[in-house]
Design brief:
This protein is an alpha+beta fold and 287 residues long. 28% of the residues lie in helices and 23% in strands. It folds into two domains: 4-145, N-terminal domain of MutM-like DNA repair proteins (Alpha-Beta Barrel); 157-281, Orthogonal Bundle (Helicase, Ruva Protein, domain 3), CATH 1.10.8.50. The longest helix is centred in the C-terminal third of the chain and has 20 residues, at 210-229. The structure holds zinc ion (ZN).
Length: 287
């Protein structure tokens, strides 16, 4: 699933392409991806101008007129393509191997804009969603389902220390993956942040020292900022026509490096399972 850096990259691109453009048509081929209904989605979108696109955790938030928001989540297999003037200008999300045209059989939603631009939502397994909500519902979802944004000042050592006090009997990696702890971190950046903070993913939260928790907060921010700078980790087999696929992968510290040597101490990186997820760590310098 795309994590904060990948969704943030898509958000920045969408802002460039969609912001201020008027929607002329919406076509939905897979109604169950749309909530509350296709009729309500079309009513809200057709004729409307998209304001800015923001992000909450791994979710894209389109700001619409009349105090409405459209929440777009790519989940495990979703992909967004922006096409204009005959070329694909942006592909974000998951690759669809062997499929290089849009629309294709995995295109479930198409939104057309003035000026000829089209946005395609492709999803091989259909886990993603498009959900139309009013501002009050969005605030409610945002407060109930998500912790602070990791790159905001609200995510700080005091917050994290207090939060972890209430979750002493959890594994630190599991806590990082929980969107209610901090929004937008998934498997890759949890492993990367834990490596940077020298904390073993399978440590019990209750056994962490305050100094380690503080260092973990700083590490999360550092890793995410770096990954945003590199436009995330590329999930794409497509070549972005502007040559801008995510390039964090060669810079990663530990994720996907099982069997290779630790970039800090040279020990062989181990791969194991923590919280049901493939997890990579250095058995020597992560304690
Ligand atoms: Zn090491």
């Amino acid at each position: 699933m795309p994590e904060l850096p990948e969704v943030e990259t898509i958000r920045r691109d969408l802002n460039k392409f969609l912001s201020g453009k008027k929607i002329t048509a919406v076509e939905v081929r897979q109604p169950r991806l749309v909530k509350p209904s296709v009729t309500k989605l079309k009513k809200a979108l057709v004729g409307a101008r998209v304001g800015r696109v923001s992000r909450r955790g791994k979710m894209l938030v389109w700001h619409l007129p009349k105090q409405q928001k459209l929440l777009v989540h790519l989940k495990m297999t979703g992909q967004i393509v922006w096409r204009q003037g005959g070329g694909k200008l942006m592909v974000g999300g998951h690759p669809i191997i062997g499929v290089d045209t849009v629309p294709n059989k995995y295109t479930h939603i198409t939104v057309s804009f003035t000026g000829g631009g089209k946005l395609y939502f492709n999803d091989t397994r259909k886990f993603g969603y498009w959900r139309l909500v009013d501002d009050a519902t969005f605030t409610d979802i945002s407060q109930k389902n998500f912790g602070p944004e990791p790159l905001s000042v609200a995510f700080n050592a005091n917050y994290f220390l207090a939060y972890l006090k209430k979750h002493q009997r959890a594994l630190i990696k599991a806590i990082l993956l929980d969107q209610k702890t901090v929004a937008g971190i998934g498997n890759i950046y949890a492993d990367e942040s834990l490596w940077l903070a020298k904390v073993k993913p399978q440590r019990w939260v209750g056994k962490l020292h305050p100094a380690e928790i503080k260092l973990l907060v700083a590490s999360i921010k550092k890793i995410l900022k770096e990954a945003v700078k590199y436009r995330g980790t590329s999930f794409n087999s497509y070549v972005d026509s502007l040559g801008r696929a995510g390039t964090y992968w060669p810079h990663r510290k530990v994720y996907g490096r099982g069997g290779l040597s630790c970039k800090r101490c040279g020990t062989i990186i181990l791969k194991t399972r923590v919280a049901g997820r493939g997890t990579h760590y250095c058995p020597k310098c992560q304690r």
